[in-house]
Amino acid sequence: MTDQPILAASGLTKTFGSRRDPHRAVDGVSLAVHAGEILGVVGESGSGKSTTLRCVVGLEKPDAGRVTYDGLDLAGASRDVRRRFRRDVQMVFQDPYASLNPRMSVERIVGEGLDIHRLAATKQARRDRVVEVLEVVGLDATILDRHPRSFSGGQRQRIAIARALAVGPRVLVCDEPVSALDVSVQAQVVNLLLDMRERLGMAVVFVAHDLALVRHLCDQLVVMQHGVVVESNRCADVFATPAHDYTRSLLAAIPIPDPALDRARRRRAAGEVPA
Amino acid sequence: ADPSGPGADGDTTLTFGVDGTVPNIDPVLADNSTVDQSVVPMYESLVDYDPDGTLAGRLASSWKVADDATSVTFTLRSGALFHDGSPVTAEDVKFTLDRAKALGLGVAQYLTEYVSSEVTGDNELTVRLAHPSTLFVGGLAKVYILNSKLVQKNAGSDQGQAWLASHEAGSGPYTLKTFKPNQQIIYVKDADYTGTKNPDAPDTIVYRLIPEDAPQKEEMLAGNIDVSDGLEAGPDLDAVLADGSKKAVELAKPQGIYIFFNTQRAPFNDPKVREGIRLAYDYQAHVKTILSGHGEVATGVVPAVMACRPDVQPFAQDLTKAKELLSGLAKSGTELHLAYQPIFSEMSDAATALQSSLRDLGVKVKLVTTDYPTYIEDLKSIDKTPDMTVVWDNPPTPDVGSLLSTRYTTKYVEKGTNFGQYSNPAVDALVDKAIGTADDTERCDLYKQAQQKLVDDSASMPIADEVTTVITPKNVTGVELYPAHVGYMPQTYRMSN
Amino acid sequence: MRLDLATAAPEAAPDAAPRPLLEIRGLTVSYPGPTGPVEIVSDLDLTVGRAERVAIVGESGSGKSVTARSLLRLDRRATVTGSLLLDGTDLLALGEKEMRSYRGRRIALMLQDPMTTLNPVLTVGSQVMEALRVHGVGKAEARRRAIAVLDRLGIPDAARRMRAYPHEFSGGMRQRVCLAMAIVAEPDLLIADEPTTALDVRVQEQVLTLIDSLVDELGMGVILITHDLGLVAGFAERVAVMYAGRRVETGAVDELYRSPRHPYTAGLLGSVARVDRDDPLRPIPGSPVMPTARPVGCAFHVRCAHAEADCGVERPEIRLVGHSDVACHHPLALREGA
Amino acid sequence: MTTVAIAATASRPRRKRLPVLDVIAFGAVVVLLAMAVAGPWLAPHDPYQVRLDRALLSPSGDHLLGTDGLGRDVFSRILVGARSSIFAALLAVSGAALIGIVVAMVATIGPRWLDDVVMRLCDITLSLPVMVMALGVAVALGPSLHSAIVAMIVAWWPGFARLARAEMRTVLTAPYVEAATVLGASRARVMTRHVLPNSLDGVYVQATLEIGGATLIMAGLSFVGAGAQPPSAEWGAMVENGSRYLSSAWWISTFPGLMITLTALAFALAGDALRNRSHPDSTLG
Amino acid sequence: MTPKDLALFVVRRLLLLATTLLGIVTIVFLMIKAIPGDEAQAAAGLTASPEQVEAVRRRLGLDDSVLQQYVGYLGRLLHGDLGNSIFTFRPVASDLSGLIPYTIELVVLAMLINVSVGVPAGMLAAARHRSRVDDSVRLLAIFCGALPTFWLAMIGQAVIGRQLGLTPISGVATIGLDVPRRTGFLTLDSLLAGNVVAFNDALAHLVLPAAVLSIPFMSFVIRVVRSSMITALEADHVTAARAKGASERTVLVRHGLRNAIAPVSTLLGLQIGWMMGGAVLVETVFNRPGFGSYLTQAVAHKDTFAVLGMVLVVGVIVTFVGLVVDLVQLVADPRVRLLEARRA
Ligand SMILES: Nc1ncnc2c1ncn2[C@@H]1O[C@H](COP(=O)(O)OP(=O)(O)OP(=O)(O)O)[C@@H](O)[C@H]1O
Ligand SMILES: Nc1ncnc2c1ncn2[C@@H]1O[C@H](COP(=O)(O)OP(=O)(O)OP(=O)(O)O)[C@@H](O)[C@H]1O
Ligand SMILES: [Mg+2]
Ligand SMILES: [Mg+2]
């Protein structure tokens, strides 16, 4: 881990809605992720997590703020840098059913990035690389010609991750990659991400609802509320000593899969806020 | 419902099925035969042709053509009254003629020679003409005299056009009860009519305007119409006649179906080619099948009912000769355009049949649609005039000269009435001379010579003279053809019990 | 907190009958498929006592919602067999009209997604009132009780908010309205089908707390359906785990969490991240099996780390192991210490 | 990390048996198209040969469906007319669909104002009924089958444009399109590889459904004289031509009328079947 | 949505309407320019003398630049001047104002039939989704949509009108039954005149054409009602309603139909315009005066101003109907209100 973050955003602001009725979805958000680090972003629905991420990867144009990649401001960056950014920063989406083009075979889906960035000289080279990344995510070569509709949600999410991995990114931005999956499958994907950080030294930005999962996975944590970062710290520290009331209320609501502990927690919580 | 019989109060009603549209009953539009039959019960003209072809006075008790034929003096029938009770005066006649001329519409076409009128008394006026013309008086048969005071009272800046479109201002045997544009017209007999009375005429006349074939036929079959000319021979007609309450009267019309060539342009500047086409058509079959027998094969350039016609053999098909005459045309591969008006099935049938015959002879024909106003417009330029056009033609007036001069003389080339743009000095001379000739026999002879020349030169291709079958209740008599009017003349019908 | 709900519950018999509130015996639900009927839920047994909280847990497609709907006989296309005894009355033997009078009044259903459970074109109030109106309660009375319930569930200014439309409410408020619709007629049994899946942890917590307090106050039984074992630990008294349309394990909550006997239950527990411990996640390999494509034998054996030869041959019957009912040929041993 | 074996049990949709009605509909469409292609070679008589001596013959061995008022063989004319009747409809619909798709694409990629302008234009055009529009065009270009086709394209492209645009907008926000963008795909690549292929299903289905309607409108136009002109054997024109003989020679207009209904029915059912397969019960219609 | 929002909505819609109308007018104007032939000649009538044509040309400003002409054309339109018909020799505007009531009467009755048959049929199919009833209704709907209107009209006339004698064959009223024309709507006028016989007669003349006109449209209504009801009935709130103990009737109407109003009303709004097109055929065959038969005649006689005037009028009517549909949806569907409120 170097001091220079690979990817950082500062002062991101994004407003939706009409001029008469503006709605500030993201308001001065800053975050940074270093190589080999997993950054978690949590906050309740509508707090601006997705919008922040979309601004970071360039799917949305922020009204203010800047995104730096390897210390270079993307706004004024050369074409070359921007191309490298496109290759090095990849994204995984929440809905595994909508994130794969239903008309493409697995080979074409996963290989698309290779085509775009001309990373495979021959067809065979492309195929080899596709098989390689499929194996990384725990799938095998037999599925190359199949289409997304014949896969389960967990398998799709693996394919989506493989697509991102194919171009050899340094940062993987994941917007709730497991929320739509079954509990058993969620754990598979989370383990996969951990494994990749280990093996490839990739940085990961991980957005989630599930705080227990975030605690399990992340090194750094950003807590958002109403488009604003209310807390940003090392993950363990946030859980140990939450600084903000909002964070505390979030933590208090996390269920514990242990009847006795959970009953106790619930009693505590009920005493505090019936809202 | 049996409206043909006496009503509860002994009144008689006759319902006519009228095949066409009448959006407007301004008599200035009476050049259109449907409008003509819609206004004729309500109005009178100065003169009209009787069924035997003689020109007789109506509102005019007498008229005198000046010796140089450049003016005519009319004396009006005394005591004639408009429906509002005001007398018919020479002023009204002058108003009517001036109005038509000023509007330049419809019957104005019969007034091309008209310059002005000079009223010389309540019942007398003199009309000045631009050129000597024996045709002028006959043309007045469809110029209906308007009640000038009534019209002026209701006129805006439009010469009363808007008002007359749905009101009447006439002196005829019937008054208007209701007029619903394109739907129905109801007339009631005017007890105070001052002309020759027809006591047996129906008390009420109803026109139902049904332009489409299908509903017209259905209404007839259902017995909702008493009088119709819309049924062809065949099962439909038989069905209507079956119960014995109806009869059919055949009337020969001064109307024929023609094909006109653009004689000013290749290939039809060659009379041989025109003849070839003429010989290619099956006239007998046209009458038998397309007209369902309601007509006769044409025997000259003017309809057979007209006077002053030369003896001409009926036209007939001769494919061998046609093939020979058309071989050059066939070889050239030229595609000829044949224009027709799609709203009239006889025309589209004839066009289709001719196209098929010519195809057998190797001549390519393309059918193109037109409509009457466009056609007339196109006739104003030789270039725009189609190679061939199939069209109904009826003489402007029953005087053969009116037809010969407007259709076949150089004066009318590119004027919109010479359908073939036909120009032949010999014909011009004969027709001009005839028109200026006051003597009947001599004039007639000149007309015959002109017609013979036109036939020999294949100036046009007359196909058939038409006959209408009028179906009426058994008790109706007096169904006759008045040559200036090709539609119904209900005021002349007589009903007996 | 005063309750104004007493008026419509004449038969809330507190004389603690030995008979459970709901007794499900051999519930089997099948749907017509392209090649004949497909059994989605097979041979399910479950009992719910008064004021008891029972959870049904299972992954997507395991037949939880089908079970819930069949308890109210909502699906005309479904063939439901077995017996469903509510207070001794077999629901499956009722005529459609009688059944209708049970729905909402005796058994209520609360659905997963608050946005789709509320009709977007009707006011919130009218939808809550509907649950009473269809059972013949007068308009004014229904209105009064609807307001009372909304008020009770913490909707501020309930009388005025009755006129609002669902989209004018926040997610948490909508969820309360759904709950209000379900309980306004004071049912004996509330079935909540994943009532909190789409919600944030905090709202989820609030809704469960509300249901909890209602159980205490009204003495109704609750079946809570969820896919998240983590969620119900502190809520339910008993838990039934379903896999591919079959119950694989039922037990008292403490027992089941401490020492799951079925490998699937253990797998689910191993997949849940715990905020209080740093255990690595131990996911179940593969993906859940649909009831429509159940493998022969134990449906779980293709994913099971403890599977042996007989698992792929014969379907294990439910039997009592320790304090739990388990359908497994090779149940896990009792865990020590926990 | 273990490699997960992908069991064959993964929910692969079972191939459904084609319903009988769908089979019939697709069969009828195929037969009709075959007729349109091969009609002229199948016709036992020259469909344009006027034989005034054989007019109005009732159906017989020689003239299976009788002859018309000019003695032409009705059966042969129906066979030959299939081409103008069906192809005209096909042409009109595919022309409208094509223009609609292109316009939708331009509106989708183009700047906001262009999108606004295009959609306004669609609204305006949609506010004029096809029949009225077609008659207007017939006046402008002269009545003919070509004008009728042009008119229908003019009247119908906005429908397709709206449909395609709506689908494209939806697809454009689909995560897989965003994924491609994040991968660095160019706008052109995104449009052609991802958006276009995934947004045309609705258009295809709609087009199939509309072909039946187009046949009817074409026939209607011919009926009022603004469509195909003699001697064309277009079915609507044939019905019109035969309407005079409805009570005496019913066969002249009845058979082409039946063919029109049959064609419309076949395409409507086929379109319906297509739609049910692509997304059952979810769209209009 | 506050009254202010509603007012804003209406104003915005009216502005939109204005641009649409302007668009239609522009298209019509361009069509006039595009049609070959001399406009002045057409306006003056074909038999007009060259001097008259020139006078008309000057009066209509046709010697000005195209832009000036466009402005002039707009000005004339504002005064209700649609030009003169070369066929009826009357101002197109006055022709149309006399005829449109007939068409509207026809379209309104056809719409009533359409809705009162189509909606219940669609609901029935949706309620019995995937049953034999559903299949038959669907098939019937498709079949209705495959019948050529003009053909149906001819058959209806021959069979129902003539052979069975159930309805009059053609026309709008029995000859001789006259009521004073006040509104132009025959049914309304006869009611105003207190003449029941005339009212029944007018209605009898309307029934068959309206039924014929409505049949193909019914096909769409049935299908749209069916599919949007099916969608609506699949929603969770329907399950919730059933779970409350609501009867099938309540579910169908309150939760099904109510939620299907938006797509159905959109379709019905569009259909009013399409019906005006369909009226062309029906009016021709039934010999009804009206907008359709006027249009066919105008086309047959190449009556440019009449055709374009009509295009304009239909455009205006359809656009206004669109506005009404929008308002209906605004009232009936709070989701639309939300959308509008957001857009404001
Ligand atoms: N394209 C958009 N147009 C208008 N508003 C938007 C748009 N995208 C997001 N918003 C709004 O911005 C706010 C933040 O949304 P965002 O999706 O970033 O939240 P989130 O934290 O990701 O929520 P969730 O957990 O539900 O995914 C929300 O109120 C949302 O409605
Ligand atoms: N109406 C139906 N007709 C046919 N099959 C159905 C029907 N409803 C559900 N199923 C099938 O039954 C199975 C179980 O569905 P169910 O909705 O009960 O699952 P669930 O456990 O509630 O899952 P989830 O967590 O996704 O809600 C699924 O395979 C589904 O495809
Ligand atoms: Mg999000
Ligand atoms: Mg479920």
From TrEMBL, chain A:
<dbReference type="InterPro" id="IPR017871">
    <property type="entry name" value="ABC_transporter-like_CS"/>
</dbReference>
<dbReference type="GO" id="GO:0005524">
    <property type="term" value="F:ATP binding"/>
</dbReference>
<comment type="similarity">
    <text>Belongs to the ABC transporter superfamily.</text>
</comment>
<keyword id="KW-0547">Nucleotide-binding</keyword>
<keyword id="KW-0067">ATP-binding</keyword>
<dbReference type="InterPro" id="IPR003439">
    <property type="entry name" value="ABC_transporter-like_ATP-bd"/>
</dbReference>
<dbReference type="Pfam" id="PF08352">
    <property type="entry name" value="oligo_HPY"/>
</dbReference>
<feature type="domain" description="ABC transporter">
    <location>
        <begin position="7"/>
        <end position="251"/>
    </location>
</feature>
<dbReference type="Pfam" id="PF00005">
    <property type="entry name" value="ABC_tran"/>
</dbReference>
<protein>
    <submittedName>
        <fullName>ATP-binding cassette domain-containing protein</fullName>
    </submittedName>
</protein>
<dbReference type="InterPro" id="IPR050319">
    <property type="entry name" value="ABC_transp_ATP-bind"/>
</dbReference>
<dbReference type="InterPro" id="IPR027417">
    <property type="entry name" value="P-loop_NTPase"/>
</dbReference>
UniProtKB/TrEMBL annotation, chain C:
<dbReference type="InterPro" id="IPR027417">
    <property type="entry name" value="P-loop_NTPase"/>
</dbReference>
<keyword id="KW-0472">Membrane</keyword>
<keyword id="KW-0067">ATP-binding</keyword>
<dbReference type="InterPro" id="IPR050388">
    <property type="entry name" value="ABC_Ni/Peptide_Import"/>
</dbReference>
<keyword id="KW-1003">Cell membrane</keyword>
<protein>
    <submittedName>
        <fullName>ABC transporter ATP-binding protein</fullName>
    </submittedName>
</protein>
<dbReference type="Pfam" id="PF00005">
    <property type="entry name" value="ABC_tran"/>
</dbReference>
<dbReference type="InterPro" id="IPR017871">
    <property type="entry name" value="ABC_transporter-like_CS"/>
</dbReference>
<dbReference type="GO" id="GO:0005524">
    <property type="term" value="F:ATP binding"/>
</dbReference>
<feature type="domain" description="ABC transporter">
    <location>
        <begin position="24"/>
        <end position="269"/>
    </location>
</feature>
<dbReference type="InterPro" id="IPR003593">
    <property type="entry name" value="AAA+_ATPase"/>
</dbReference>
<dbReference type="Pfam" id="PF08352">
    <property type="entry name" value="oligo_HPY"/>
</dbReference>
TrEMBL record, chain D:
<protein>
    <submittedName>
        <fullName>ABC transporter permease</fullName>
    </submittedName>
</protein>
<feature type="transmembrane region" description="Helical">
    <location>
        <begin position="20"/>
        <end position="43"/>
    </location>
</feature>
<keyword id="KW-0472">Membrane</keyword>
<comment type="similarity">
    <text>Belongs to the binding-protein-dependent transport system permease family.</text>
</comment>
<feature type="transmembrane region" description="Helical">
    <location>
        <begin position="203"/>
        <end position="228"/>
    </location>
</feature>
<keyword id="KW-1003">Cell membrane</keyword>
<feature type="transmembrane region" description="Helical">
    <location>
        <begin position="86"/>
        <end position="109"/>
    </location>
</feature>
<dbReference type="InterPro" id="IPR035906">
    <property type="entry name" value="MetI-like_sf"/>
</dbReference>
<feature type="transmembrane region" description="Helical">
    <location>
        <begin position="248"/>
        <end position="270"/>
    </location>
</feature>
<dbReference type="Pfam" id="PF00528">
    <property type="entry name" value="BPD_transp_1"/>
</dbReference>
<feature type="domain" description="ABC transmembrane type-1">
    <location>
        <begin position="82"/>
        <end position="271"/>
    </location>
</feature>
<keyword id="KW-0813">Transport</keyword>
TrEMBL record, chain E:
<dbReference type="Pfam" id="PF00528">
    <property type="entry name" value="BPD_transp_1"/>
</dbReference>
<feature type="transmembrane region" description="Helical">
    <location>
        <begin position="306"/>
        <end position="332"/>
    </location>
</feature>
<keyword id="KW-1133">Transmembrane helix</keyword>
<protein>
    <submittedName>
        <fullName>ABC transporter permease</fullName>
    </submittedName>
</protein>
<feature type="transmembrane region" description="Helical">
    <location>
        <begin position="14"/>
        <end position="32"/>
    </location>
</feature>
<comment type="similarity">
    <text>Belongs to the binding-protein-dependent transport system permease family.</text>
</comment>
<dbReference type="InterPro" id="IPR000515">
    <property type="entry name" value="MetI-like"/>
</dbReference>
<feature type="transmembrane region" description="Helical">
    <location>
        <begin position="202"/>
        <end position="222"/>
    </location>
</feature>
<dbReference type="InterPro" id="IPR045621">
    <property type="entry name" value="BPD_transp_1_N"/>
</dbReference>
<keyword id="KW-0472">Membrane</keyword>
<feature type="transmembrane region" description="Helical">
    <location>
        <begin position="106"/>
        <end position="127"/>
    </location>
</feature>
<dbReference type="InterPro" id="IPR035906">
    <property type="entry name" value="MetI-like_sf"/>
</dbReference>
